[in-house]
From TrEMBL:
The active site is at residue 222. GO terms for molecular function: isocitrate lyase activity; metal ion binding. Keywords: Lyase, Magnesium, Metal-binding. Can also use Mn(2+) ion. Signal peptide: none annotated. Gene3D superfamilies: Phosphoenolpyruvate-binding domains. This is Isocitrate lyase. It catalyses: D-threo-isocitrate = glyoxylate + succinate. Mg(2+) binds at residue 184. InterPro entries: ICL/PEPM, Isocitrate_lyase, Pyrv/PenolPyrv_kinase-like_dom, Pyrv_kinase-like_dom_sf. PANTHER family: BIFUNCTIONAL GLYOXYLATE CYCLE PROTEIN, ISOCITRATE LYASE/MALATE SYNTHASE.
Length: 532
């Protein structure tokens, strides 16, 4: 990124070549607008953020303490406020990303209205949200730089060269709010060509990382629902190839693919793949299929299938809709095979969808994967679908019981009860929840921790609290005490909502364009001045 002085010098040299007709154009204003719009296209963003993510992956390989995190955001404003908060509280955005959840796109961004997570929403709504998120992040850049430019102008007007140099230094060292987005493409929204076309749109919007799952596209279910159906490896690998080709076609060579397996909770397959050679992926996949041993043709009815598994002939167990069942208790083995196969065929990271947040369970699968792929790394869903409180209290209960510790004062099935909130068991469970990401990164190969839909829940909770108080006895005090006063005391930039929406940026632009005759909104009578 060019420095302020370099941009100004370059703009000045260009204007000097244009003759007198461009005399109204100020080179310093050009420099400011260019710095406020560092990323001209979504592909610029994808290339920039892919490099960040690759460097973070390398850093994690050296030390698992370098794991990364994100929160799912369903609107550009939510993503913007998240990154403004990260910069405010931590000084930089290192290791912090955004997550784009297909669940939240379905539930909150579909033109068809709120939908379940079953790939029924418009596929174009996914790249549209990516573009929206980056539009808001770039606007956060513009706003913060606008404040720095005003600091520079004030220092100059006051003749304070020390403050002027300090302001220019802050401008030159400015860190963008633009960070990697891990974007959910579900199961690809169709065949491999459909996956390729959608992946291109997502990358052009700015996505450097695309997550794709091995469910059947037209029967996709949320990873935490029943009825999940997976596809054979060959079908899934074709979609991984489609995403890779999309990255390469658009010049994003460092683009990242996250291969998600839902096999742990999926008991059904769409179809029986055809084995071409002994021991190939199709034969390995078919070994997991449940069926009845066939010893006599009289066991077969019209339309029944017969499958050879080693030396056995079996009649696969099929549902009325034709889907085929897997053998019970094969989920973890199928997950391991899925993960190894995906990494061996072009994926960069793994996602194992689990039914609970249990480090030992995840680590057990990762250990088997790393016997083949030593640097295998996971993206892990710290899902709101888990009852974290109950799960971890039960984990502590079980570990105490196995160690011979007295647990007679606790009811394992009722550990969610408030009566246990101050107990030693609850305190240990909370400590384990607090340490979960760090411990899972160290023990279970998790490079990136995300919460898929936290801002869905925070919006619901905060709205419920405000509505209860505002429409009750507190009236206006509910907003003032619980919202505005907290914004002021916690120094939330959003308390000046006019500035956050771009009012000051617009004023400066008007002055660039119209000079002294500009009609600006930020004068003395702007009520935003009450929050200075």
């Amino acid at each position: 990124m060019n420095t302020y002085q370099t941009e100004t010098t370059q703009a000045n040299a260009f204007l000097a070549q244009q003759g007198t007709s461009w005399n109204a154009i100020n080179p310093e204003h050009i420099a400011r607008m260019r710095l406020q719009n560092r990323f001209k296209t979504g592909l610029d963003i994808a290339k920039y953020t892919a490099k960040i993510m690759r460097n973070d992956m390398d850093a994690y390989d050296k030390n698992p303490a370098n794991y990364t995190q994100s929160l799912g955001c369903w609107h550009g404003f939510i993503g913007q406020q998240k990154m403004i908060a990260v910069k405010k509280h931590f000084g930089n955005t290192q290791g912090r990303y955004l997550y784009l959840s297909g669940w939240m796109v379905a539930a909150m961004r579909s033109e068809l209205g709120p939908l379940p997570d079953q790939s029924m929403h418009e596929k174009t709504s996914v790249p549209a949200l990516i573009e929206e998120l980056y539009t808001f992040l770039k606007q956060a850049d513009s706003r913060e730089l606008n404040h720095l430019f005003r600091d520079l102008d004030n220092a100059r007007q006051g003749g304070d060269q020390v403050k002027e140099k300090a302001a220019q230094k802050r401008i030159d060292e400015f860190q963008t709010h633009v960070v990697p987005i891990i974007a959910d493409i579900d199961a690809g929204f169709g065949n491999e060509e459909a996956t390729y076309l959608l992946a291109k749109k997502m990358i052009e919007a700015g996505a450097c990382c695309i997550q794709i799952e091995n469910q059947v596209s037209d029967a996709k279910q949320c990873g935490h629902q029943d009825g999940k159906v997976t596809v054979p490896h060959e079908d899934f690998l074709a979609k991984i190839n489609a995403v890779r080709y999309a990255f390469l076609e658009l010049g994003v060579e460092q683009g990242i693919i996250v291969a998600r397996t839902d096999s742990l909770g999926a008991g059904l397959t769409q179809k029986i793949p055809v084995s071409q050679t002994p021991g190939d992926l199709a034969e390995q996949y078919n070994q997991f299929i449940e069926g009845e041993a066939v010893t006599d043709m009289s066991q077969l009815n019209s339309g029944d299938l017969v499958l050879r598994q080693g030396e056995l002939l079996i009649k696969p167990t099929r549902l009325a809709n034709g889907l085929v069942k897997f053998k019970a208790n094969t989920g973890e083995d199928r997950v391991v095979l899925d993960c190894i196969t995906s990494l061996q065929h072009g994926a960069d990271l793994l996602w194992i969808e689990t039914e609970k947040p249990h480090i030992e369970q995840i680590a057990g699968m990762v250990k088997k994967i790393r016997e083949v792929i030593p640097n295998a790394k996971l993206v892990y869903n710290n899902s709101p679908s888990f009852n974290w409180t109950l799960n971890f209290r039960q984990q502590v209960f079980d570990s105490w019981q196995q160690a011979g510790q007295d647990v007679s004062e606790y009811d394992r099935n009722n550990l969610m009860s408030q009566q246990y909130d101050d107990s030693k068991l609850a305190q240990q469970a909370d400590q384990q929840i607090q340490n979960f990401q760090r411990e899972a990164a160290a023990q279970a190969g998790i490079f990136h921790h995300l919460i898929t839909l936290p801002t869905y829940h925070t919006a619901a909770l905060s709205t419920d609290n405000l509505a209860k108080a505002y429409f009750g006895e507190q009236g206006m005090l509910a907003y003032v005490e619980n919202v505005q006063r907290q914004e002021i005391r916690q120094s939330l930039a959003c308390v000046k909502h006019q500035d956050m929406s771009g009012s000051n940026i617009g004023d400066d632009h008007k002055e660039y364009f119209s000079g002294q005759q500009a009609l600006k909104a930020g004068g003395l009578n702007n009520t935003m001045n009450q929050f200075s």
